[in-house]
Amino acid sequence: MAARTTPITAVTPEWLEKGDNAWQLISATLVGMQSVPGLVILYGSIVKKKWAVNSAFMALYAFAAVLICWVSFAYKMSFGHQLLPFWGKAGPALDQKFLLRQAHLSATEYKFHNGTVETQMVQPFYPMATMVFFQFVFSAICLILIAGSLLGRMNIHAWMLFVPLWLTFSYTVGAFSLWGGGFLFQWGVLDYSGGYVIHLSSGVAGFTAAYWVGPRLTKDRERFPPNNVLLMLGGAGLLWMGWAGFNGGDPYAANIDASLAVLNTNICAAASLLVWTAFDTIFFGKPSVIGAVQGMITGLVCITPGAGLVQGWAAICMGILSGSIPWYTMMVVHKRSPFLQKVDDTLAVFHTHAVAGTLGGFLTGLFAQPTVTGMFSSVPGTHGAFYNHDIRGAMQVVKQLGGALFIISWNLVMTSIICWVISKIVPLRMPEEHLMIGDDAAHGEEAYALWGDGEKYDSSKHGLYNEAVEAGNRGSSRYNEPPVAV
Protein backbone atom coordinates (compact mmCIF):
# COMPACT_ATOMS: atom_id res chain seq x y z
CA MET A 1 0.00 0.00 0.00
CA ALA A 2 1.32 3.44 -0.88
CA ALA A 3 2.50 5.64 1.96
CA ARG A 4 0.19 8.42 3.12
CA THR A 5 1.52 11.77 1.95
CA THR A 6 -1.04 14.00 3.68
CA PRO A 7 -1.20 14.10 7.51
CA ILE A 8 -4.49 12.81 8.92
CA THR A 9 -4.96 16.04 10.89
CA ALA A 10 -4.93 18.01 7.64
CA VAL A 11 -8.19 16.35 6.49
CA THR A 12 -9.84 16.19 9.91
CA PRO A 13 -11.52 19.51 10.72
CA GLU A 14 -11.85 20.58 14.34
CA TRP A 15 -15.65 20.29 14.32
CA LEU A 16 -15.65 16.61 13.28
CA GLU A 17 -16.72 14.22 16.04
CA LYS A 18 -15.51 10.84 14.81
CA GLY A 19 -17.75 8.84 17.16
CA ASP A 20 -20.90 10.62 15.98
CA ASN A 21 -19.84 10.29 12.35
CA ALA A 22 -19.15 6.57 12.75
CA TRP A 23 -22.51 5.96 14.45
CA GLN A 24 -24.37 7.92 11.80
CA LEU A 25 -22.73 5.97 8.98
CA ILE A 26 -23.47 2.70 10.78
CA SER A 27 -27.09 3.75 11.32
CA ALA A 28 -27.46 4.68 7.66
CA THR A 29 -26.01 1.32 6.63
CA LEU A 30 -28.39 -0.52 8.97
CA VAL A 31 -31.37 1.30 7.45
CA GLY A 32 -30.04 0.59 3.97
CA MET A 33 -29.77 -3.11 4.85
CA GLN A 34 -33.44 -3.06 5.84
CA SER A 35 -34.14 -2.44 2.15
CA VAL A 36 -31.22 -4.26 0.51
CA PRO A 37 -31.20 -7.12 1.30
CA GLY A 38 -33.96 -7.04 3.97
CA LEU A 39 -37.10 -6.14 2.03
CA VAL A 40 -35.69 -7.61 -1.17
CA ILE A 41 -35.57 -10.97 0.62
CA LEU A 42 -38.86 -10.50 2.45
CA TYR A 43 -40.78 -9.47 -0.67
CA GLY A 44 -39.20 -12.18 -2.79
CA SER A 45 -40.14 -14.82 -0.20
CA ILE A 46 -43.56 -13.78 1.06
CA VAL A 47 -45.22 -13.80 -2.37
CA LYS A 48 -46.37 -16.65 -4.58
CA LYS A 49 -43.46 -18.34 -6.32
CA LYS A 50 -44.24 -16.95 -9.75
CA TRP A 51 -43.84 -13.38 -8.40
CA ALA A 52 -40.61 -13.84 -6.41
CA VAL A 53 -38.26 -12.22 -8.93
CA ASN A 54 -40.56 -9.33 -9.81
CA SER A 55 -41.26 -8.49 -6.17
CA ALA A 56 -37.57 -8.51 -5.22
CA PHE A 57 -36.66 -6.45 -8.28
CA MET A 58 -39.22 -3.74 -7.49
CA ALA A 59 -37.41 -3.16 -4.20
CA LEU A 60 -33.93 -3.31 -5.74
CA TYR A 61 -34.83 -0.89 -8.55
CA ALA A 62 -36.39 1.62 -6.15
CA PHE A 63 -33.27 1.68 -3.97
CA ALA A 64 -31.03 2.55 -6.92
CA ALA A 65 -33.41 4.99 -8.62
CA VAL A 66 -34.09 6.95 -5.43
CA LEU A 67 -30.36 7.43 -4.77
CA ILE A 68 -29.71 9.08 -8.12
CA CYS A 69 -32.76 11.33 -7.78
CA TRP A 70 -31.85 12.09 -4.16
CA VAL A 71 -28.38 13.46 -4.83
CA SER A 72 -29.46 15.14 -8.07
CA PHE A 73 -32.29 17.28 -6.69
CA ALA A 74 -34.50 15.67 -4.00
CA TYR A 75 -32.29 16.06 -0.93
CA LYS A 76 -32.44 19.84 -1.09
CA MET A 77 -36.18 19.71 -1.77
CA SER A 78 -36.45 17.90 1.58
CA PHE A 79 -33.78 19.67 3.65
CA GLY A 80 -32.71 22.77 1.74
CA HIS A 81 -33.79 26.38 1.58
CA GLN A 82 -37.52 26.98 1.74
CA LEU A 83 -39.46 27.39 -1.48
CA LEU A 84 -42.90 27.03 0.12
CA PRO A 85 -43.87 26.37 3.76
CA PHE A 86 -44.04 22.65 2.88
CA TRP A 87 -41.33 22.36 0.22
CA GLY A 88 -37.65 23.12 -0.29
CA LYS A 89 -35.83 24.39 -3.37
CA ALA A 90 -34.50 21.68 -5.66
CA GLY A 91 -30.76 21.45 -6.25
CA PRO A 92 -27.91 18.95 -6.54
CA ALA A 93 -26.10 17.55 -3.50
CA LEU A 94 -22.98 16.48 -5.37
CA ASP A 95 -20.51 19.34 -4.98
CA GLN A 96 -17.45 18.44 -2.89
CA LYS A 97 -17.50 21.75 -1.02
CA PHE A 98 -21.10 21.08 0.00
CA LEU A 99 -20.59 17.42 0.94
CA LEU A 100 -17.45 17.96 3.05
CA ARG A 101 -18.61 20.92 5.11
CA GLN A 102 -20.24 20.52 8.51
CA ALA A 103 -23.74 19.11 8.27
CA HIS A 104 -26.87 21.07 9.03
CA LEU A 105 -30.39 19.72 8.91
CA SER A 106 -32.25 22.76 7.73
CA ALA A 107 -31.65 26.23 6.38
CA THR A 108 -35.01 27.39 7.76
CA GLU A 109 -35.58 29.44 10.89
CA TYR A 110 -38.93 30.77 12.04
CA LYS A 111 -39.01 34.15 13.78
CA PHE A 112 -41.68 35.61 16.03
CA HIS A 113 -42.86 39.16 15.48
CA ASN A 114 -40.43 40.34 18.19
CA GLY A 115 -37.50 38.88 16.22
CA THR A 116 -36.69 35.94 18.48
CA VAL A 117 -35.95 32.61 16.82
CA GLU A 118 -38.25 29.72 17.70
CA THR A 119 -36.29 26.84 16.18
CA GLN A 120 -32.54 26.54 15.81
CA MET A 121 -30.83 24.75 12.96
CA VAL A 122 -29.59 21.29 13.88
CA GLN A 123 -25.86 21.15 13.16
CA PRO A 124 -24.32 17.73 13.84
CA PHE A 125 -20.57 17.22 14.10
CA TYR A 126 -20.02 15.37 10.82
CA PRO A 127 -20.02 16.24 7.11
CA MET A 128 -22.98 16.80 4.84
CA ALA A 129 -22.04 13.65 2.91
CA THR A 130 -23.02 11.59 5.95
CA MET A 131 -26.31 13.45 6.35
CA VAL A 132 -27.19 13.10 2.66
CA PHE A 133 -26.61 9.35 2.75
CA PHE A 134 -28.48 8.91 6.04
CA GLN A 135 -31.54 10.73 4.74
CA PHE A 136 -31.36 8.86 1.43
CA VAL A 137 -31.89 5.43 2.98
CA PHE A 138 -35.09 6.69 4.62
CA SER A 139 -36.46 7.99 1.34
CA ALA A 140 -35.58 4.71 -0.38
CA ILE A 141 -37.32 2.47 2.13
CA CYS A 142 -40.44 4.62 1.89
CA LEU A 143 -40.76 3.85 -1.83
CA ILE A 144 -40.00 0.18 -1.23
CA LEU A 145 -42.78 -0.03 1.38
CA ILE A 146 -45.22 1.33 -1.20
CA ALA A 147 -44.23 -1.53 -3.48
CA GLY A 148 -45.60 -3.95 -0.88
CA SER A 149 -49.13 -2.83 -1.76
CA LEU A 150 -48.59 -3.40 -5.48
CA LEU A 151 -46.87 -6.78 -5.70
CA GLY A 152 -48.21 -9.35 -8.11
CA ARG A 153 -49.68 -7.20 -10.87
CA MET A 154 -48.14 -3.71 -11.37
CA ASN A 155 -46.50 -3.15 -14.73
CA ILE A 156 -42.77 -2.91 -14.02
CA HIS A 157 -42.44 -0.04 -16.53
CA ALA A 158 -45.12 1.89 -14.65
CA TRP A 159 -43.25 1.25 -11.39
CA MET A 160 -40.04 2.59 -12.94
CA LEU A 161 -41.86 5.87 -13.65
CA PHE A 162 -43.72 5.93 -10.34
CA VAL A 163 -40.60 5.87 -8.16
CA PRO A 164 -38.99 9.18 -9.21
CA LEU A 165 -42.33 10.96 -9.58
CA TRP A 166 -43.59 10.00 -6.14
CA LEU A 167 -40.25 10.81 -4.52
CA THR A 168 -40.28 14.26 -6.12
CA PHE A 169 -43.87 15.31 -5.55
CA SER A 170 -44.84 13.48 -2.39
CA TYR A 171 -41.96 12.30 -0.23
CA THR A 172 -40.06 15.59 -0.33
CA VAL A 173 -43.13 17.47 0.86
CA GLY A 174 -43.59 15.34 3.96
CA ALA A 175 -39.87 15.34 4.73
CA PHE A 176 -39.53 19.11 4.46
CA SER A 177 -42.75 19.83 6.34
CA LEU A 178 -41.82 17.69 9.35
CA TRP A 179 -38.02 17.41 9.33
CA GLY A 180 -36.62 20.13 7.10
CA GLY A 181 -37.97 23.11 9.04
CA GLY A 182 -41.34 23.30 7.31
CA PHE A 183 -44.65 24.40 8.74
CA LEU A 184 -45.49 21.19 10.61
CA PHE A 185 -42.12 21.22 12.36
CA GLN A 186 -42.58 24.89 13.27
CA TRP A 187 -46.04 24.10 14.62
CA GLY A 188 -44.57 21.48 16.93
CA VAL A 189 -45.75 18.21 15.34
CA LEU A 190 -43.52 15.40 16.63
CA ASP A 191 -42.24 12.74 14.25
CA TYR A 192 -39.02 11.45 15.76
CA SER A 193 -37.99 9.07 13.00
CA GLY A 194 -40.66 8.77 10.31
CA GLY A 195 -43.96 7.51 11.68
CA TYR A 196 -45.58 10.10 9.44
CA VAL A 197 -42.89 10.91 6.85
CA ILE A 198 -42.18 7.24 6.06
CA HIS A 199 -44.90 4.94 7.32
CA LEU A 200 -48.13 6.91 7.16
CA SER A 201 -47.22 8.29 3.76
CA SER A 202 -46.23 4.88 2.35
CA GLY A 203 -49.34 3.22 3.77
CA VAL A 204 -51.68 5.82 2.27
CA ALA A 205 -49.78 6.04 -1.01
CA GLY A 206 -49.60 2.26 -1.35
CA PHE A 207 -53.33 1.85 -0.73
CA THR A 208 -54.14 4.68 -3.15
CA ALA A 209 -51.87 3.29 -5.86
CA ALA A 210 -53.35 -0.18 -5.34
CA TYR A 211 -56.78 1.29 -6.03
CA TRP A 212 -55.60 2.81 -9.33
CA VAL A 213 -53.53 -0.17 -10.46
CA GLY A 214 -56.32 -2.63 -9.80
CA PRO A 215 -56.30 -6.08 -8.17
CA ARG A 216 -54.32 -9.23 -8.82
CA LEU A 217 -55.90 -12.13 -10.63
CA THR A 218 -58.79 -13.62 -8.65
CA LYS A 219 -56.92 -16.91 -8.24
CA ASP A 220 -53.90 -15.05 -6.87
CA ARG A 221 -55.98 -13.10 -4.38
CA GLU A 222 -57.66 -16.27 -3.18
CA ARG A 223 -54.45 -18.27 -2.89
CA PHE A 224 -51.15 -16.45 -2.47
CA PRO A 225 -48.87 -18.67 -0.34
CA PRO A 226 -45.32 -17.56 0.54
CA ASN A 227 -42.77 -19.44 -1.52
CA ASN A 228 -40.26 -19.58 1.36
CA VAL A 229 -41.39 -18.87 4.93
CA LEU A 230 -37.94 -19.34 6.48
CA LEU A 231 -36.31 -16.93 4.04
CA MET A 232 -39.15 -14.49 4.74
CA LEU A 233 -38.21 -14.65 8.43
CA GLY A 234 -34.62 -13.86 7.50
CA GLY A 235 -35.78 -10.70 5.70
CA ALA A 236 -38.00 -9.81 8.64
CA GLY A 237 -35.07 -10.25 11.01
CA LEU A 238 -32.96 -7.84 8.98
CA LEU A 239 -35.85 -5.39 9.11
CA TRP A 240 -36.11 -5.67 12.92
CA MET A 241 -32.39 -5.38 13.65
CA GLY A 242 -31.96 -2.62 11.09
CA TRP A 243 -34.49 -0.53 13.01
CA ALA A 244 -31.72 0.19 15.52
CA GLY A 245 -30.31 2.50 12.89
CA PHE A 246 -33.74 3.67 11.76
CA ASN A 247 -34.59 5.11 15.18
CA GLY A 248 -31.19 5.17 16.89
CA GLY A 249 -29.68 7.41 14.24
CA ASP A 250 -32.22 10.20 14.50
CA PRO A 251 -30.69 12.16 17.37
CA TYR A 252 -27.91 12.74 14.78
CA ALA A 253 -25.35 11.85 17.44
CA ALA A 254 -24.18 8.87 19.49
CA ASN A 255 -25.83 10.23 22.63
CA ILE A 256 -28.09 9.03 25.43
CA ASP A 257 -31.23 9.70 23.41
CA ALA A 258 -29.99 7.28 20.74
CA SER A 259 -29.66 4.60 23.41
CA LEU A 260 -33.19 5.27 24.65
CA ALA A 261 -34.57 5.14 21.12
CA VAL A 262 -32.95 1.78 20.36
CA LEU A 263 -34.20 0.18 23.58
CA ASN A 264 -37.74 1.55 23.18
CA THR A 265 -37.82 0.31 19.59
CA ASN A 266 -37.09 -3.27 20.59
CA ILE A 267 -39.43 -3.18 23.59
CA CYS A 268 -42.39 -2.03 21.49
CA ALA A 269 -41.68 -4.50 18.67
CA ALA A 270 -41.47 -7.44 21.06
CA ALA A 271 -44.64 -6.49 22.90
CA SER A 272 -46.55 -5.98 19.66
CA LEU A 273 -45.40 -9.32 18.24
CA LEU A 274 -46.53 -11.16 21.37
CA VAL A 275 -49.93 -9.45 21.45
CA TRP A 276 -50.56 -10.12 17.74
CA THR A 277 -49.58 -13.77 18.21
CA ALA A 278 -51.87 -14.06 21.22
CA PHE A 279 -54.82 -12.71 19.21
CA ASP A 280 -54.11 -15.14 16.36
CA THR A 281 -53.97 -18.03 18.82
CA ILE A 282 -57.15 -17.03 20.65
CA PHE A 283 -59.30 -16.40 17.57
CA PHE A 284 -57.81 -18.79 15.00
CA GLY A 285 -56.47 -21.56 17.21
CA LYS A 286 -52.91 -21.41 15.90
CA PRO A 287 -50.07 -18.86 16.12
CA SER A 288 -49.24 -17.58 12.65
CA VAL A 289 -45.64 -16.95 11.63
CA ILE A 290 -46.73 -14.36 9.07
CA GLY A 291 -48.96 -12.84 11.75
CA ALA A 292 -45.98 -12.60 14.11
CA VAL A 293 -44.03 -10.72 11.43
CA GLN A 294 -46.97 -8.36 10.92
CA GLY A 295 -47.14 -7.74 14.67
CA MET A 296 -43.42 -7.08 14.74
CA ILE A 297 -43.75 -4.54 11.93
CA THR A 298 -46.70 -2.70 13.50
CA GLY A 299 -44.73 -2.41 16.74
CA LEU A 300 -41.69 -1.01 14.95
CA VAL A 301 -43.86 1.43 13.02
CA CYS A 302 -45.85 2.55 16.05
CA ILE A 303 -42.79 3.39 18.17
CA THR A 304 -41.03 5.24 15.35
CA PRO A 305 -42.60 8.70 15.83
CA GLY A 306 -41.84 8.61 19.57
CA ALA A 307 -38.87 6.25 19.94
CA GLY A 308 -36.57 8.77 21.61
CA LEU A 309 -39.37 10.78 23.23
CA VAL A 310 -41.12 8.28 25.52
CA GLN A 311 -40.23 6.18 28.54
CA GLY A 312 -39.95 2.39 28.61
CA TRP A 313 -43.35 1.81 30.19
CA ALA A 314 -44.93 3.90 27.43
CA ALA A 315 -43.12 1.79 24.81
CA ILE A 316 -44.78 -1.32 26.28
CA CYS A 317 -48.19 0.37 26.17
CA MET A 318 -47.59 1.38 22.57
CA GLY A 319 -46.60 -2.21 21.76
CA ILE A 320 -49.79 -3.59 23.28
CA LEU A 321 -51.91 -1.18 21.27
CA SER A 322 -49.94 -1.67 18.04
CA GLY A 323 -50.38 -5.42 18.35
CA SER A 324 -54.12 -5.15 18.84
CA ILE A 325 -55.58 -2.16 16.96
CA PRO A 326 -53.98 -2.90 13.54
CA TRP A 327 -54.83 -6.57 14.11
CA TYR A 328 -58.48 -5.56 14.55
CA THR A 329 -58.51 -3.26 11.51
CA MET A 330 -56.91 -5.97 9.37
CA MET A 331 -58.81 -9.04 10.61
CA VAL A 332 -62.22 -7.53 11.38
CA VAL A 333 -62.76 -4.08 9.88
CA HIS A 334 -61.12 -4.94 6.55
CA LYS A 335 -63.20 -8.09 6.07
CA ARG A 336 -66.43 -6.24 6.82
CA SER A 337 -65.76 -3.24 4.58
CA PRO A 338 -66.74 -3.60 0.91
CA PHE A 339 -64.43 -0.72 -0.05
CA LEU A 340 -61.38 -2.13 1.75
CA GLN A 341 -62.12 -5.52 0.23
CA LYS A 342 -62.22 -3.97 -3.23
CA VAL A 343 -58.73 -2.49 -2.98
CA ASP A 344 -56.06 -5.20 -3.33
CA ASP A 345 -53.32 -4.12 -0.90
CA THR A 346 -51.08 -7.17 -1.35
CA LEU A 347 -49.14 -7.06 1.94
CA ALA A 348 -51.71 -5.03 3.93
CA VAL A 349 -49.37 -2.02 4.04
CA PHE A 350 -52.34 0.20 4.88
CA HIS A 351 -52.85 -1.60 8.18
CA THR A 352 -49.23 -2.28 9.12
CA HIS A 353 -47.95 1.19 8.21
CA ALA A 354 -50.77 3.74 7.80
CA VAL A 355 -52.85 2.57 10.76
CA ALA A 356 -49.83 1.80 12.95
CA GLY A 357 -48.10 5.06 11.96
CA THR A 358 -51.16 7.17 12.79
CA LEU A 359 -51.55 5.29 16.08
CA GLY A 360 -47.90 5.93 16.92
CA GLY A 361 -48.18 9.63 16.18
CA PHE A 362 -51.29 9.93 18.35
CA LEU A 363 -49.67 8.03 21.23
CA THR A 364 -46.56 10.19 20.95
CA GLY A 365 -48.84 13.16 21.55
CA LEU A 366 -49.91 11.45 24.78
CA PHE A 367 -46.64 9.97 26.05
CA ALA A 368 -43.83 12.31 24.88
CA GLN A 369 -41.82 12.97 28.04
CA PRO A 370 -40.83 16.64 28.52
CA THR A 371 -37.13 16.14 29.30
CA VAL A 372 -36.25 13.93 26.36
CA THR A 373 -38.63 15.78 24.03
CA GLY A 374 -36.65 18.93 24.77
CA MET A 375 -33.60 17.23 23.26
CA PHE A 376 -35.47 16.75 20.00
CA SER A 377 -37.70 19.79 19.54
CA SER A 378 -36.98 23.38 20.48
CA VAL A 379 -40.61 24.44 20.00
CA PRO A 380 -41.80 25.58 23.47
CA GLY A 381 -44.28 23.33 25.30
CA THR A 382 -43.87 20.37 22.94
CA HIS A 383 -44.57 17.31 25.07
CA GLY A 384 -47.27 14.75 25.70
CA ALA A 385 -50.71 15.33 27.19
CA PHE A 386 -49.96 12.71 29.86
CA TYR A 387 -47.45 15.15 31.39
CA ASN A 388 -49.47 18.30 30.86
CA HIS A 389 -53.14 18.27 31.79
CA ASP A 390 -54.01 21.79 30.60
CA ILE A 391 -54.81 23.03 27.12
CA ARG A 392 -51.19 22.69 25.97
CA GLY A 393 -51.28 18.95 26.50
CA ALA A 394 -54.50 18.63 24.55
CA MET A 395 -53.06 20.83 21.82
CA GLN A 396 -50.15 18.44 21.30
CA VAL A 397 -52.62 15.67 20.50
CA VAL A 398 -54.44 18.04 18.13
CA LYS A 399 -51.14 18.89 16.45
CA GLN A 400 -50.32 15.20 15.98
CA LEU A 401 -53.70 14.51 14.42
CA GLY A 402 -53.43 17.62 12.26
CA GLY A 403 -50.03 16.52 10.98
CA ALA A 404 -51.43 13.08 10.15
CA LEU A 405 -54.35 14.67 8.28
CA PHE A 406 -51.99 16.74 6.12
CA ILE A 407 -49.82 13.72 5.24
CA ILE A 408 -52.90 11.60 4.43
CA SER A 409 -54.51 14.29 2.27
CA TRP A 410 -51.37 15.17 0.34
CA ASN A 411 -50.52 11.56 -0.42
CA LEU A 412 -54.06 10.66 -1.39
CA VAL A 413 -54.26 13.48 -3.92
CA MET A 414 -50.69 13.42 -5.22
CA THR A 415 -50.50 9.64 -5.60
CA SER A 416 -53.75 9.69 -7.55
CA ILE A 417 -52.42 12.39 -9.88
CA ILE A 418 -49.16 10.51 -10.41
CA CYS A 419 -50.96 7.26 -11.21
CA TRP A 420 -53.28 9.06 -13.64
CA VAL A 421 -50.33 10.67 -15.45
CA ILE A 422 -48.46 7.37 -15.71
CA SER A 423 -51.56 5.61 -17.03
CA LYS A 424 -51.50 7.99 -20.00
CA ILE A 425 -47.97 6.80 -20.82
CA VAL A 426 -47.95 3.08 -20.00
CA PRO A 427 -50.58 0.74 -18.50
CA LEU A 428 -50.44 0.60 -14.71
CA ARG A 429 -51.30 -3.10 -14.65
CA MET A 430 -49.72 -6.02 -16.47
CA PRO A 431 -51.76 -7.69 -19.26
CA GLU A 432 -53.85 -10.65 -18.16
CA GLU A 433 -51.67 -13.12 -20.03
CA HIS A 434 -48.59 -11.84 -18.19
CA LEU A 435 -50.38 -12.07 -14.85
CA MET A 436 -50.99 -15.73 -15.54
CA ILE A 437 -47.28 -16.36 -16.04
CA GLY A 438 -45.56 -14.00 -13.62
CA ASP A 439 -41.79 -13.51 -13.49
CA ASP A 440 -41.02 -15.22 -16.76
CA ALA A 441 -43.30 -12.81 -18.62
CA ALA A 442 -42.08 -9.70 -16.79
CA HIS A 443 -38.34 -10.43 -16.69
CA GLY A 444 -37.65 -13.64 -18.59
CA GLU A 445 -36.35 -15.05 -15.32
CA GLU A 446 -37.67 -17.37 -12.63
CA ALA A 447 -36.74 -17.80 -8.98
CA TYR A 448 -36.91 -21.59 -8.69
CA ALA A 449 -36.92 -24.55 -11.05
CA LEU A 450 -39.88 -25.98 -9.13
CA TRP A 451 -43.53 -26.22 -10.18
CA GLY A 452 -46.92 -26.86 -8.73
CA ASP A 453 -48.74 -23.70 -7.67
CA GLY A 454 -50.77 -23.09 -10.80
CA GLU A 455 -48.61 -20.88 -12.98
CA LYS A 456 -48.38 -21.38 -16.73
CA TYR A 457 -45.92 -24.13 -17.62
CA ASP A 458 -43.81 -24.38 -20.77
CA SER A 459 -42.95 -28.06 -21.21
CA SER A 460 -40.67 -27.34 -24.18
CA LYS A 461 -38.56 -25.13 -21.95
CA HIS A 462 -38.69 -26.93 -18.64
CA GLY A 463 -39.14 -30.59 -19.57
CA LEU A 464 -42.00 -32.98 -18.92
CA TYR A 465 -43.80 -32.58 -15.63
CA ASN A 466 -46.98 -33.99 -14.15
CA GLU A 467 -48.33 -31.62 -11.52
CA ALA A 468 -50.86 -34.14 -10.25
CA VAL A 469 -48.09 -36.66 -9.52
CA GLU A 470 -46.03 -34.00 -7.78
CA ALA A 471 -49.03 -33.02 -5.65
CA GLY A 472 -49.45 -36.60 -4.58
CA ASN A 473 -45.76 -36.89 -3.76
CA ARG A 474 -45.94 -33.86 -1.51
CA GLY A 475 -49.00 -35.24 0.21
CA SER A 476 -50.53 -31.81 0.69
CA SER A 477 -54.00 -30.70 -0.32
CA ARG A 478 -52.53 -27.23 -0.73
CA TYR A 479 -51.11 -28.31 -4.07
CA ASN A 480 -54.20 -30.16 -5.31
CA GLU A 481 -55.01 -27.87 -8.20
CA PRO A 482 -56.00 -29.08 -11.67
CA PRO A 483 -52.88 -30.52 -13.30
CA VAL A 484 -51.27 -28.78 -16.21
CA ALA A 485 -51.38 -30.87 -19.40
CA VAL A 486 -48.12 -32.61 -20.19
Automatic annotation (TrEMBL):
Pfam families: Ammonium_transp. The keyword Membrane applies. Residues 22-448 form the Ammonium transporter AmtB-like domain. It is a multi-pass membrane protein. One of its GO terms (cellular component) is plasma membrane. PROSITE patterns: AMMONIUM_TRANSP. Coiled coil: none annotated. GO terms for biological process: ammonium transmembrane transport. The chain crosses the membrane at residues 22-44, 56-75, 125-147, 159-184, 196-214, 226-246, 258-277, 289-307, 313-334, 346-368, 401-422. Belongs to the ammonia transporter channel (TC 1.A.11.2) family. This is Ammonium transporter.
